[in-house]
Structures are given as structure tokens and as C-alpha cells.
Amino acid sequence: MNVVWYIASWLMNHVILPNPVAVYSALAQLGGREIGLHVVYSLARIFIGVILGLIFGLLIGLLMGRSNFWNKLLDPVVYLTYPVPKIALLPVVMLFFGLGEGSKILMIMLILLFQVIISVRDGVRAIPNNTYDVLMSIGASNMQKFWHVTLPGALSVILSTIRISLGTAISILFFTEIYGTEHGMGYFIMDAWLRLDYPEMYAGILLFSIVGFGLFLLVDYLDVKFMKWRN
Prior knowledge:
It is found in: Cell membrane. It is a multi-pass membrane protein. This is ABC transporter permease. It is a single chain. This protein is mostly helical. It has a domain of about 140 residues: MetI-like (MetI-like fold, Orthogonal Bundle), CATH 1.10.3720. About 80% of the residues lie in helices and about 0% in strands. Helix 3 packs across helix 4, helix 3 packs across helix 9 and helix 5 packs across helix 6.
């Protein structure tokens, strides 16, 4: 890939596409404390948004998965709102919640929320009823049935959903960090672009991709850690 990048830079011979050596050099020269602050802000927004999406998505998905009444009641609402492109909601969210941290976190949460609801509901409804019957026959409580059957079934689809949604969430985060903040990887990349510092801009994009790669590795680790029963 670096070879292709270098050849493209050489053929174009323009400042807007620096060669990989210049970009890697800019990446190495980024101030540790300054760039670390941008990364921390972006990661905090992602983590809070993902956690909120998981909490609300898990609760609603479990409710719909275990209750036909709530499933019939909430199904139309979920199916009506799920197809709406979340990036189209960005102006609305910013109007109601401002340009601060709340709107940024809310956008991340919305990316994940509906996918978690549908995945958890389908995962819970796919659990055979006789699985619960076996636990009931040995005197298991409702909490034990939830802990040993329902939650593992839901957690499996949740991790898959996070993998699918994470790339979109990072993309949305970039757009939200352009406005109303002076911290975050989105702000850093756009600031470099406005200053016409293209090596630093590409270095920021590269660092953004490294952060995303790290998040995917974290999800894989959680899968191995908590989904041992699948192996």
C-alpha cells in the first residue's frame, strides 16, 4: 500500500498528496500531549455513546424479546426510525442539544441504539423455550435464567452489532467534532486542512484509523473473553 501511495504521490507531484515518508514524519513529530488530548476526547465520546446505546438498546431489546405485547407495540416505532440516516439527524440534534458534548455523544448513541435493539430482540427470541424449561426444572430463579441464558444470547449479537456499527460511529464522530469544539480527532484533521498542512492532515487521518483499529481489536478481545462458550 505504501508503494502504491508513493507512486501516486510521485505521479501527481502536488502538495495535496504528500508521499508516505512526509506523512510518517509528520506523525512522528506530533506533540504527544496535544495529540493525546485529541485522542482522549474522541475516545471518551465514543465510549460514552456506545455504553449509553448498549444500556438503552439492551433494555428495550430484552423487553421486546421476552414480551409479545411490547414487541408488537414498539416494532412499528423501531422500524420507522431505524432506516432514517443518522447523519441527517445531526442538524436536528444540534438544534435541540447545542454544539457541546451532549450532541456528539447522542449521535454516537443513535448509531448503535436501533441496531442493538433489533439484534438483542432477535437474539433473545431465537433462544429455545425449552432452554428456560430446563433451568426451571432445577429451581433456577429469574435472575439466574437471565444471567446464564438470556444475557449470553444477547451479548453474542451485541458484539457483532458493535463491530458493524463502529465504523459508522467513528465517521459520524468526525462530522460532530468539526463544530463547537477545539478537541477531538475530527477537529485536529480539519484544523490541519484549513492551515494547508497536508502532511499533518494525513497524519491525523492515519492516527484516526489506528484508533479505530484499536477499538476493533478491543471488541475482538471482549468476544474471546466473554464468548468462550461459542468455542
